[in-house]
Amino acid sequence: MTAGLAVLSILCGWLLVQYTRSILEVRSIRRQLEEIERGSRMELGVYSRQREMLALCRKLNELGRQNMQGQIRYEKAQKQLKQNITALAHDIRTPLAGASGYVQLAGECRERGRQEYYLQAAEGRLKELGDMLEELFLFTKLSDTDFEPDMRRLQVLPLLGDCLVGMYLQFEEKGISPEVRFDSEGFRVDADEEYLRRIFHNLIRNALLHGTGNLVITQQEKRLTFENAVSETSRPDTEQIFEQFYKADSARRKGSSGLGLFIVKELMEKMGGGVKAELEQEKLRIILKFP
């Protein structure tokens, strides 16, 4: 009986020591967490060799690293957003200031021909501004989880032709003419008509703004390719070209929101297709792949 009591006493003593150690470890972890909460980037440490306590410490450290990485990504995204907003505000002011200047010149001019020229130039700047605001509106709309395109069977060539005719003056100003090559004039796709027009408009406008030669549009099977030459200073990074607010540096002053190709990518994916970019020597190809 005495031996049994002795064993029980030893066991109770051992449990008390283990309990005390556990309480001290928990207090130590709490103090370390308070240090981390105050901004310390330390990792938690424990003296115990208990498997569960070590596993808890590792898990807390893993969660801490994930939280820190998330905070770094958030801060980076916030910084990038501020830079994008600043750049976008500058881009919006550019055509607005240009339109205002041309209207002022028209008001001061007495020669009718020059007046008409200034007013047409102002109209062009306002159209640029309208395009940018339309892209911003669509950009916010695309982030809506309820966004659903109205899919229908559409013949592509007439829609593309309408878009090209609608930008006839811009082609004339640049002294170029688009070239269209379709393997099948009856080529049809499942798409939302409004958004397919927006895709074509953005790709044509991108070629007009940043291209240096004729725009060639070809259709083969379920692919539609927009190809144009680019200058050495306007060569885009094909890995980033579809990112929101991305611009080649030299294009910053050209009145573009930096959302055009991002919207193309988003709309194509929403409609079940895809898009990719290729740069071969001085030729940029943007390829639409329909489902």
Structure explained in plain terms:
This protein is 59% helix and 13% strand. Helix 3 (112-142) crosses helix 7 and helix 4 (156-166) packs across helix 6 (193-210). The longest helix is centred in the N-terminal third of the chain and has 58 residues, at 51-108. The model has no long low-confidence stretch (mean pLDDT 81). The radius of gyration is 31 Å and the shape is elongated. The chain has helices spanning 2-37, 51-108, 112-142, 156-166, 168-174, 193-210, 260-270; strands spanning 152-155, 179-182, 188-191, 216-220, 223-229, 274-280, 283-289.
Measured between the Cα atoms of the first and last residue, the distance is 84 Å
* Low-confidence parts: none
- Quickly give the structural class: alpha+beta
Query: Count of helical segments?
Result: 7
Percentage of residues in helical conformation: 55-70%
Largest sheet: 5 strands, mixed
What is the β-strand count? 7
Order of helices and strands: HHHEHHEEHEEHEE
β-strand amount = 5-15%
Shape call: elongated
- What do the pLDDT scores average to? 81
C-alpha Rg, in Å?
31 Å
Task: Give the oligomeric state of the chains in this entry, treating copies of one chain as homo and distinct chains as hetero.
Answer: single chain
